[in-house]
Specification:
Blueprint lengths: L19 E4 L5 H12 L3 E4 L4 H11 L3 E3 L7 H15 L4 E4 L14 H29 L3 E6 L12 H21 L4 E8 L13 H8 L8 H11 L11 E4 L3 H4 L4
Parallel strand pairs: 1-2, 1-4, 2-3, 4-5, 5-6, 6-7
Helix pairs in contact: 1-7, 3-4, 4-5
Length: about 260
């Protein structure tokens, strides 16, 4: 018989009333949609973005239950500050979504050590140490919690000029699996969502993006930010408490056949 002590299960409801969350890289795009969905379900959110104007404008548009905290999610002391701020403002921390990430395209043969270090520092080190700080707080609270990493289909299928980025995203998925060992005894689940082609402010800068990926995606269109946010919301909700160490690919079927652009 498993005698591991678990936190008392909370009543399962789709509401996140009374829950608090940190979302990094949330000034626009997928991160902003995640914040919007969390707040709509009753959560209070610390919204982080490296761009102060984006962070403040995004939080202002979401109302009083959203507090902006601009800063570099690759900076380890700042990741601890994110956790401390959430606890100081809201009294607790229940959900962490490590969404901030950096994509730096480059040919493998000429990829620079500077680009490699920048990608790994944000995508991996920032995520790892934010998770560490959050898990320590959740363990202290003794009421469980949910942690979610934003990965990518490039962690599953090769893309030209994205060797370093794809490597970092595959590593995040392994991190989620490995942390099952450390976090499960405290009722903390940890999962990953891997988006495929998604329409965001950044991808909209490419006039051919939507048409190209509508042709390549079996479901006939790239994802919307709400498609990705809805999957993430499920994995950090009470309904997914028994799901941990998993990656959910949200790509309209692209990885099943993987045609290149």
């Amino acid at each position: 018989m498993n005698t591991t002590n678990h936190p008392t299960p909370q009543h399962r409801t789709s509401s996140l009333q009374g829950r608090t969350a940190i979302v990094t890289g949330a000034g626009q795009g997928i991160g902003f949609a995640i914040c919007r969905h969390l707040i709509a379900k009753g959560a209070k959110v610390i919204l982080n973005d490296a761009d102060p104007a984006l962070a403040h404008n995004a939080a202002a548009s979401l109302g009083p239950n959203c507090i902006p905290l601009p800063g570099d999610a690759a900076d380890i002391p700042f990741t601890r500050h994110l956790v401390d701020t959430c606890v100081n403002e809201f009294g607790r921390l229940d959900i962490v979504i490590a969404n901030a990430g950096l994509t730096l395209f480059g040919d493998f043969f000429s990829y620079t050590t500077e680009s490699f270090s920048r990608v790994m520092q944000l995508n991996l080190a920032g995520t790892f140490f934010l998770t560490q700080a959050a898990a320590l707080q959740m363990r202290k609270q003794q009421q469980g919690g949910s942690i979610l990493f934003t990965s990518s289909v490039t962690g599953h299928q090769a893309h030209r000029h994205l060797a370093a980025y794809g490597m970092s995203k595959a590593a995040l998925e392994m991190l989620a699996r490995n942390l099952v060992i450390d976090l499960s005894p405290y009722g903390i689940n940890v999962n990953t969502v891997a988006p495929g082609a998604t329409l965001t402010e950044r991808t909209a800068e490419d006039p051919a993006y939507e048409k190209t990926w509508s042709t390549l995606t079996p479901m006939g269109r790239p994802a919307s930010v709400d498609d990705i946010a809805s999957a993430i919301l499920f994995l950090v909700s009470p309904e997914a408490r028994h799901i941990t160490g998993q990656t959910l690919i949200v790509d309209g079927g692209w990885t099943a056949i993987s045609p290149g652009p």
